[in-house]
Amino acid sequence: MQVLPTKVDRSSEEFRANREAMLAKLAEFEELQAKARLGGGQKYIDRHRKRGKLLARERIELLIDPDTAFLEFSTLAAWGTDKNLGANAVTGIGVISGVECVISANDPTSQAGSSNRYTLAKTLRAQDIARQNRLPLVNLVESGGADLPDQAEVFITGGKWFRNLTQLSRLGIPTVALVFGNSTAGGAYVPAMCDYAVMVKERAKVFLGGPPLVKMATGEESTDEELGGAEMHSRISGLSDYFARDELEAIRMGREIVAHLNWRKQGYGPTMPADEPVHDPEDLLGIVPRDLRVPFDMREVLARILDGSRFEEYKQLYGTSMVTGWGSIHGFPIGVVANQQGVIFSEEAQKTTEFIQLCNRYDLPILFIHNTTGYMVGKIYEQRGIIKDGAKMINAVANSTVPHISLMAGVSYGAGNYGMSGRSYDPRFVFGWPNHKVAVMGPKQLAGVMSIISRAAAEARGQTYDEEADAAMRAMIEHQISEEEQAYFSTARVRDDGLFDPRDTRTVLGIALSAIHSGPVKGTSEFGVFRM
Amino acid sequence: MIRKLLVANRAEIARRVFRTCREMGIATVAVYSEPDRHAPFVADADEGVPLGGSTPAESYLRIDALIEAARRTGADAVHPGYGFLAENAAFARAVIDAGLTWVGPPPEAIETMGSKLRSKRLVADAGVPVLDSIDLSGLDEEAIREAAERIGYPVLVKASAGGGGKGMRIVPDSEHLLDAVEAARRESASAFGDDTVFVEHYLEAPRHIEIQVFADRFGTTVSLHERECSIQRRHQKIIEEAPSPALTAELRERMGKAAVAAAEAVGYVGAGTVEFLFQRGEFWFLEMNTRLQVEHPVTEEITGLDLVRLQLLVADGQPLPDEVREPQMRGHAVEARLYAEDATRGFLPVTGRLDRFRFDPGVRVDTGVEDGSEISIHYDPMIAKVIVWAPSREEATSRLATVLQRAEIHGLVTNRELLVRILRHPEFVAGEFDTHFLERHDPALLARPLPDADEERMSAVAAALAAQEDRRRSAKVQATIPSGWRNSPSQNQQVVFTGSDGDVTVGYRFVPRAGLTVEVDGRPLSDVRLVSASPDRVGLEVAGRLGWYRIHRVGPVHHVDGPGGYCRLVEQPRFPEAELEDTPGSLHAPMPGKIVKVLVAEGETVDEGQVMVVLEAMKMEHSLKAPHAGVVSNVRVGPGDQVEAEEVLVVVDETSEE
Fold it and tell me: Which of A164, B212, B330, B370 is the most buried (most CB within 10 A)?
């Protein structure tokens, strides 16, 4: 395989300016992550510690094997909302007793670990990741239950939480609950629906109704411990499978449970040399333009992500606005589909369709790197059947069964997002760089389109168009879209699995691919009817 | 001509003899006890004969079994090594009577020299200076007291058949005399089957200097110069050297002549050692050892002779070669004896598995053990002799200290630290010391770990990083992902070690694009670079200084050999196990051994420090004392019981406050 060359000029003004802009963005991003790590803030952390309890992240650090990685998802969930940054939960992939697992932990320092709409989105997404990739799911439970002011947004959807758990169990994907504290009312079903429940002495509290509710309902006097203590559930009700004397013991038991699963991954595993890229990933900061209207060379990106910077390009001279080809990351072979010039023409769509079919033939996961403004519009293109070609590509993407990963590197507008296996196409993971943008179209375009439509409507009604109002409307729409297309906006709503420093891309993708190989990696030759 | 030699011994000395046999083309036969079946010395021999049993009495001391072993294998000669039957005239006779060649002196010489009293009289008649001594055999308490008074306190009570400090007691005044005599008799009876003890005057600052002699059957007896053996613990030599820094050429000549006279007085043949006490230019005959000595290698190193080869030649009836008649004396040789014992706890013998035992190449290490050897309770705790030669004394002692410091000795506590510190001690370096060196200098201090607290902390960092590297290399999933990678890092990787200086907490993190950060006990290390890391070797640069660390993990124990020496770090489990319940007031066995006496009964009131149990282990008797005053509530053992280390022997309830 060819080692990709580079044309990056580190001394250029452009490179330096891009790098500075990205570093500023990353500083801001890291500041937000640091804030998210504080959960409910120092006061609540201190209070929690004073009770002799471990923080959610401390529990995770002890649960996973020393020196292994932890890939945390959606670190900035609930950004820009009235809910705490991070959404009262920590989720991610970690290695427990040599087994890659999804870990889903309540953060009891943050609004008592209660579940708001973002918590729910993050938690359900973690369950999806466990199911799609066949990863055991370990829940670290200590939650005050539903965020009551947000009940309208969580109650109906929240039922999925428990449904997912039992469905995972049905699929043979192990589910474990380590109960460190409150897990009451609906929350009581978390340990109940899991294959394994571990409860911590004098800490776990698992009941449908607490003493006041019981008193109201039946007049019975009762205590927390009688209704739902670890001792009671371990000796009397049998809901608890393991009785832990303290948190550390509960974590040790969790590790032992995973150790006894005799877990065997079903993917074919890494098959290629996993050497570092020849070109320095540091350059990515200067390669990505500070103004995303300027396209960038995806081969320069690939040269800093792929093993040994090796890339075998498919149809290099055809449909040149899309780069397709093969390489590997941390030894896992992949196909790559990357937008080179933003726009997708018929040739690009056809080439990508073929490429996706080839990857399915040979069971190769596909990495989609987004930087697209969508499918080409215009008379010639419509008449030549751009819709039919776009449909072919969407057909191929939608029915492809090899795992997909979407990397949001630049913009992702319009049907381009769909064709590139955007979130609604169920890729196994969606990761983004903090600079990326996603929307139906760019703010200027959207405002402009709205303006043209309004003008036409006014003219049709024979009214004079209010230019001043138009300008105000355009400004307002532009502002709204600029806000909504931001990476933070979509990551806040868990529309991706998190944002990362571009320099960490190779590591993030390596962990994701390894996790993917926990389940079978298998392509298909069955697709919808292709419009020819 | 000897064709096949049986060595009636074990371990280091057996291997030593086999080595020379191989060089001389002589076939070899090993004999072994049950616990020694897989010992390296057995594998070193061409053939072997199992003796059965585990105690010396059941195995290496069985004369009939040894003769039968020689017969069965067709051995035509027997070498007794040292210890066991090496100075047993009956054995020598049995060998000779069986028509085999005895590699040792005539039985009569053994007998004569074996009696300290007779030997002393004999050599005194030959003009060799001696110290007075009185045989206590058959004397009543009153007579024993009188004898000691006549000699003058302080006195030394010694076993007649003794050697190596066994059955020996120093008595400062009459109050302790009778107890000491009783103990010496008991030890001597147990170790040598003879309870004859005698008493002599005790010198305050003597040196122990001995002369290696060699005699053939043709009337030639030569001195192969002296060995300085004054560094002793519990009357056992631990560092020996040749020549002695205390001797002038004139003194050497006089002592050599005296030694030759002593040997000639008993018609000696073969290798022997005449031991002298030496104080301020004067010397007195102490005893003659009618065997090859443990410390013979230093003589070999300075003379260039192979003493075992000479023994075999002489036994074979050949005259001493010419080079022996005019022995050279070249440079300086030092030997250190490595013991599996804890010098910080009164030289308590240590048993268990020696996980690793490695020295720099090119160093003479005479040993019976190797990686993985088990040190049992049955035999002497000496595991090796390390010998170096150099042109000068300064160089030789300094090199030996370095060799010992760098050695990888893992799994057992040894006296290595003590040896290194003695070798570097100003008194030792100056050559000005006597047999009381370790009474003046606290062995517990000399034996503490070589690295200081700072070096121990660095070793802990190195150990943490090596273990980290090991885990990464053996990872079954995500093996190539950066160590401990986090996209939103909240804390360091953390490991807590228990070292000699308390707990050390090491925190570390490989920060992408920034490198390694390390915290020790919560304080960041400045300017850290991991130059190189493998599971067993780490190069760590801290504040402009690079150190290399060799690391070996056995379970939770990290053995670290760093620039400052060895430290043993025990990794604390991340998830503590429940603590074992212990009955307060329990007296535990400090090591595996056999109960000799139980001096208390249930219901008896005892004082703190009162001896409750006598335990025999590693051929020493240990008095185990009450941990506090109280009433004996439980006696779990009786005489003759074999006990494990840490086993509860007796429980003492604390006396109630009323």
Answer: B212
